[in-house]
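User: Could you write out the 3D structure of this protein bound to coenzyme A? I've included everything you need below.
Assistant: Certainly. Input first, then the structure.
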Amino acid sequence: MIEILPFQSSDLEAVLDIEHQVYALPWSRASYEDLLVQDSIQMWAAKKNGRLVGYMLSQLGGDDAELHTIAVSPDMQGQGIGRMLMQHFFADAMKRRLNSLFLQVRLSNERALALYRSFGFEVVGLRKRYYSDNHEDAFVMRCSLTQD
Ligand SMILES: CC(C)(COP(=O)(O)OP(=O)(O)OC[C@H]1O[C@@H](n2cnc3c(N)ncnc32)[C@H](O)[C@@H]1OP(=O)(O)O)[C@@H](O)C(=O)NCCC(=O)NCCS
């Protein structure tokens, strides 16, 4: 059974391990440590029998939140864990009565794009040559939680 739990500092090693496996530009330990002391940052862990298999980090700002990162261990991808993390993000956003959710994603990241689109995210902008490893563009995506 997969559980979505609040991140604990003892989860950081496992997060960094996955981070280095899935991202071309992994965030460092110091980046996470700097972010995690900020009140606006929220982080959750997906755990299977106590093992951290995925995580998500977002930031609250006014009536909005931005999803900064979501990742699932490569050996556990395609089993619905990313979707569970996103459902948790949405449930929290609804509880907080947020207006919009934002994120950025590489144009080539078809899996993530399919996941985000299935939750109602739409492309609202393009950041040219955003990623420093290959100068790939980023889509900026937004999901409105209100009736506008
Ligand atoms: C993106 C990511 C978090 C998705 O997590 P996951 O647990 O593998 O995804 P799920 O099994 O919950 O699948 C959710 C949806 O993603 C999409 N998806 C998953 N695997 C896919 C594949 N091989 N091809 C296309 N779409 C896929 C589908 O829309 C799927 O929904 P469906 O199963 O109802 O069709 C995961 O692949 C990952 O960690 N990727 C590397 C890190 C990353 O790119 N993060 C996003 C940065 S913006």
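The chain has a mean pLDDT of 96.
User: Perfect, thank you.
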